[in-house]
Amino acid sequence: MINNLHVFLGATVADAAARPLHWVYNQKKLLTYIKGKKDFTFLKNNKSPFYNIKTGKVSGYNDVGQVMFKTLVEGHENIEERFKKNITKNFGPGSIYWKNLNLRAKYRKVKDWRGIIKGPWIHQNIIETVKNIEAKKKLTGGAKVNESDGYCAALPYFLYGYNFTSLKKIISTVTVSKISLKYALAKFHLIDLALKGAKDPINEFEKKFKKNSYFKSVIEDIKKVKKLKSKPHPIVVKKLGMACSYPGTFNSSIHSIINSSNYKGAILRTIKAGGCNCSRVNFIGAYFAALKGVNSIPKSWIRKTAPAKKILKQQ
What we know:
The chain is mainly α and 315 residues long. It is 60% helix and 0% strand. The protein contains 17 helices and no strands. The protein has helices at residues 5-18, 27-34, 60-74, 79-91, 96-106, 124-134, 149-159, 164-174, 178-195, 201-208, 216-227, 233-240, 248-258, 263-273, 277-292, 299-304, 308-313. The longest helix has 18 residues, at 178-195.
């Protein structure tokens, strides 16, 4: 596939596969949902306690990547400006995302929203981005949370061969958090090493950046995760971070990667751990697609993923 878009396909399929179990933080409850199933991807019945979308569709994490992908398919001039327009169109006032945001204020005290919020869930970074774009701010990215939206937004852009300097600009369109930027760039370096044929991109990353002060905390995190390698993944995820925030979401992803030998196993392991599995699989799916190629993504999973056809058309 041209432009390494199989890596974006890897992220997209993984997100759709995990989506019906997105944000299930009670690991015991999650186990009852998947009991007796060897493959618990693409569950027909939504189990996310926050929102309900049709199985095969993607979460808000991957959807911001789909918006960037659409922007690139339309052309490569003024990418940043057109991306902002497309974000407003997809997520802003008038969209189902924005309508559901207004509903959330109404139902704030309800514990299980799945029967109420029909349709997608807008993330904090995107809420802030939409407001900042409308206010014509120079820096449009969200500042309140340290989450994966910036990485997800920039993934297709990176795969079209744009350099790391311009990548920072794209990530900042959606998040201006320094922590988010650092961990997003670390993910891109790991994917880059995988695409360039490194047998163990995580070890290569450690070697390459061991004297780099910017990635010092990332390397410390990787070392910490490696010490926990033999511990069960759900227990480690509970310790390192089940939620959407960095560094927890990155560290939990690394633990899944170092304990998995292939794409399918890594995605199943990640889903089973619960919490914000969608933010983690958007990285893990991309990583294994970069490392093992397009054929490592199960064909039956690709067929079940709503946006997959559009990505495959660009090969």
